[in-house]
Structure formats: structure tokens, C-alpha cells
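Please review this one.

:::
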Amino acid sequence: MANKVAIEAQIQDALSNTTGVSTWAKLESYLITESDSILENVYSDIITETHLVNSITTPNSNFEYSVTIRKVGGFVHIHGTFEKVYVGSLTPHIVFAFNDTDFYGSGGGTAFAVGSVLGVGMSNQNMEAAGALNGEFFGFSVIYNTTD
């Protein structure tokens, strides 16, 4: 996914006289159907990641997780579940890390379990859940701003 500056540069390049688009069909492709088009950046696909099957996240063996991720412009929405499977104390409590810089950012949300509520959030590339106890299973939602 591109950020605002990259999209602006792509449009300016496509419309320039020296390397510009020669037909309306090429312009339409450039703005709508290419994998990094404006349309794809605004209406991106939902990505499903788990601690077992992942492409944009790197799991932490101390947690199991299942999440859906959607990036819309400069915002990322993450919804899902996680469970702390490590016996002992952890610092920090990193559930997973993004390995794709398009998803780096910061922001917070809330995780809920039976009898427990804790804060969760993004810190650069890390999804953190401070205070999770061994064996606790949480449902959570986080919406945050990306860094680029």
C-alpha cells in the first residue's frame, strides 16, 4: 500500500508530458486496477493472520492469535483474539509484530476477557497487550494511525 505522498507522485508521473499516460485506458488502469492504485488503497482487502499462518505479521511464541487487518488510507483496523500461552512474566507483552512497514503506527484499543479488561495497542511495529495472564483468552479491537 502506498501513502499519500507516493500516490500523489504516481499521479503526477502518470499525467506528466515526458513519461505520462498515452491513453485513457492506461490512466484508468493506473488509478483503478493496479495493485497500488488509489482504489486499492481506499478499499483494501481484509487480511487474515494467525500465529500459524501469516504474511505481514511475525508471531511471538508466547502468544497465539487470530486477527483480521484492514488498512484504509492512513488508518489500520485490527480485530481478533489472542491468548497468552507463556508461563511466567513477560516484558514487554508483544503479541505479534508487523514485518510490513505500511502497517507501522501507534494507537490503542481494549481487550476483553471473562472478568478482565486490559489495554492493547500498537507501538511502531509491535502489537502489545500488557498485563495478560497465562492462559487468558481475549477478544480485542484496535484502530490506529500509520506512521507514513
About this structure: The first strand starts at residue 47 and ends at 50. The radius of gyration is 19 Å.
